[in-house]
Specification:
The radius of gyration is 19 Å and the shape is globular. It is 36% helix and 19% strand. The longest helix is centred in the last third of the chain and has 17 residues. With 285 residues, it is of the alpha/beta class.
Length: 285
């Protein structure tokens, strides 16, 4: 097996994280990444639910401590980072404080979308000793991916927007063609198109294309767990039984579709019925 195919085998498909905010100051106070104390239990719960990787911007020393904590408690988790090099010396220093080598460090779109090989190679060389692999995060993937496919053979991992609605993509049909006709590793950002698509439909679409994995944005716990469940179903097992998590006890009938519902026990306590078929839910009396 080639080194590239080995990489495909080890890279996670179900990833939790956040790629929306390139700078710490731009994060809304309500978003979990603003507070490590809020983020830590969410990511831990996501790992328990089946997430195999996490992906965050490397903002500051608090993020370094958070990632070191996650790694110390679960060394199997694949940790990936995005680097915004507005202050290169600072980011290099943060990378050096990690207790592990990130599986991938993605160069931020502010670098990649300039489509400048000299610039990319400069940062590639600067951080290569701090990580296992280097990729590009692009917000303009059609031009950027096409450029680097033909001009830089070292780059074969791309983090790009990819979803059923074509949300945040210039041309959905064209990006589908690029992804499906090349042998790179593509990881989807915002697969749910900022909650415009239900998880079942979102991951059903994504897995019909040559997308290796998807980043599920950290958010309210119940929605996050639901997205993880469907991501694992479509990317991995295509069998709800091994990934049912706490979705068990089929003894309630869904009023919408007439099929069995599952009882869900959220970490906050209590329970409610959930239909894995139509996604309806019923409060437990």
């Amino acid at each position: 097996m080639s080194e590239f195919n080995q990489l495909k085998e080890i890279l996670p498909k179900v990833i939790v994280g956040s790629v929306k905010y390139p700078n710490y100051d731009s994060i809304p106070d309500s978003h979990p990444t603003k507070s490590i104390e809020s983020l830590l239990p969410i990511v831990k719960r996501s790992i328990d639910a089946g997430s195999e990787g996490c992906l965050f911007y490397l903002y500051n020393n608090d993020m370094v401590q958070f990632l070191n904590t996650i790694y110390s408690e679960n060394k199997e988790i694949k940790i990936m980072l995005i680097i915004n090099f507005m202050e290169m010396d600072v980011k290099i220093s943060l990378l050096s404080r990690l207790d592990f080598k990130p599986e991938i460090v993605f160069l931020d779109f502010s670098i990649s979308d300039q489509r400048d090989n000299d610039l990319v190679n400069k940062y590639y060389n600067a951080i290569s000793k701090y990580c296992n692999n280097i990729g590009l995060f692009s917000k303009e993937p059609i031009g950027t991916v096409s450029f680097f496919i033909t001009s830089n053979p070292k780059i074969n991992i791309f983090l790009i927007p990819f979803n059923m609605l074509g949300f945040a993509i210039q041309n959905r049909s064209l990006i589908e063609m690029i992804v499906n006709s090349s042998e790179n590793i593509y990881i989807s950002t915002d697969p749910l198109a900022e909650r415009r698509i239900k998880p079942r439909q979102a991951f059903d679409y994504i897995t019909t294309h040559k997308i290796h994995g998807a980043v599920i944005d950290v958010e309210e716990m119940e929605s996050l767990l639901e997205a993880i469940k469907y991501a694992k179903y479509f990317f991995e097992t295509h069998d709800f039984l091994p990934i049912s998590l706490e979705f068990e006890d089929h003894s309630e009938i869904c009023e919408n579709c007439g099929l069995g519902m599952s009882r869900y026990y959220p970490p906050t306590g209590g329970s409610w019925w959930y239909c894995p078929h139509c996604q309806d839910k019923k409060e437990n009396p």
